[in-house]
Design a protein that fits this description.
The chain is of the alpha/beta class. Helix content is about 35%, strand content about 20%. It has 7 helices and 9 strands; from the N terminus they run ααβαβββαβαβαβαββ. Strands 5-2-1-6-7-9-8 form a 7-stranded mixed sheet, with helices on both faces. It is globular and about 45 Å long. The structure holds S-adenosyl-L-homocysteine (SAH) and magnesium ion.
Length: about 210
């Protein structure tokens, strides 16, 4: 409950119900798959990371939190989800890394959360460790979503979990790439089955 309060106080986009479902999904993944770590793609200021860090602490796993911290397309100036308080005055560019770092430090999760700063697809390309749990909430354009799907999902072990955020089947509710380029290909591959849906969060288990 204390960590949930800290997550809700952090800047970000994860609603409470979906954060709680994310926590449950990661705990379930750890229950199904021994030893393997968790990966989060798209940490922003660390809000969702707290729920996942809490799950990592509870199950004695490590969470690798991947983000270049320059923000997604929709976080840039002129876009709907821009937050001027996150702009680095020296560069004029967005930088969520200092905010992320404070969030994780204040939550006391620095020992279970490893911060990975860089382009998700590049990190995925050089990442070979099998995963118990993967959460994709990075770039929501067609290209980044496709690259995250192709780069990261093959690492999920049987019994492991793939959680996807901002999945909107109906275009009126939001952007389509997480649905069309991550959720659908995962289901159509026959390798994943849906185990729960909460808001725009979809939780799939590898068969
Ligand atoms: N999970 C967060 C919100 C993530 S917003 C929360 O619950 O609050 C999406 C994040 O994805 C942004 O911080 C952005 O910097 C990151 N991102 C977008 N494209 C990326 C890429 N190609 N590589 C790494 N991070 C990326
Ligand atoms: Mg999201």
């Amino acid at each position: 409950p204390v960590l949930r309060g800290q997550a809700l106080a952090a800047n970000g986009f994860m609603p409470q119900e979906e954060g709680d479902a994310l926590y449950d999904a990661a705990v379930r993944a750890a229950h199904n798959v021994a030893d393997a770590p968790f990966v989060e793609v798209g940490s922003y200021c660390g809000r969702s990371t707290i729920w996942l860090g809490a799950a990592a602490r509870h199950t004695q796993r490590t969470l690798f939190a991947v983000d270049h911290h320059f923000g997604s397309e929709e976080n840039q100036p002129g876009w709907e989800w821009h937050d001027t308080s996150l702009v680095d005055s020296r560069t004029g560019r967005m930088d969520t890394l200092p905010f992320f770092r404070s969030t994780i430090l204040d939550a006391g999760l620095s020992d279970v959360v490893v911060t990975m700063v860089g382009d998700s697809a590049t990190i995925a390309q050089h990442w070979s460790t099998p995963l118990a749990f993967l959460f994709i909430d990075g770039g929501h354009g067609t290209e980044p979503a496709t690259r995250d799907y192709l780069g990261w999902t093959p690492r999920v072990l049987r019994g492991g979990i793939l959680a996807i955020h901002d999945v909107f089947e109906n275009p009126a509710d939001g952007g389509r790439p997480p649905f069309e380029n991550i959720y659908l290909p995962a289901i159509e591959s026959g390798l994943f089955v849906e185990v729960s849906a909460t808001g725009s969060l979809r939780v799939l288990q590898k068969t």
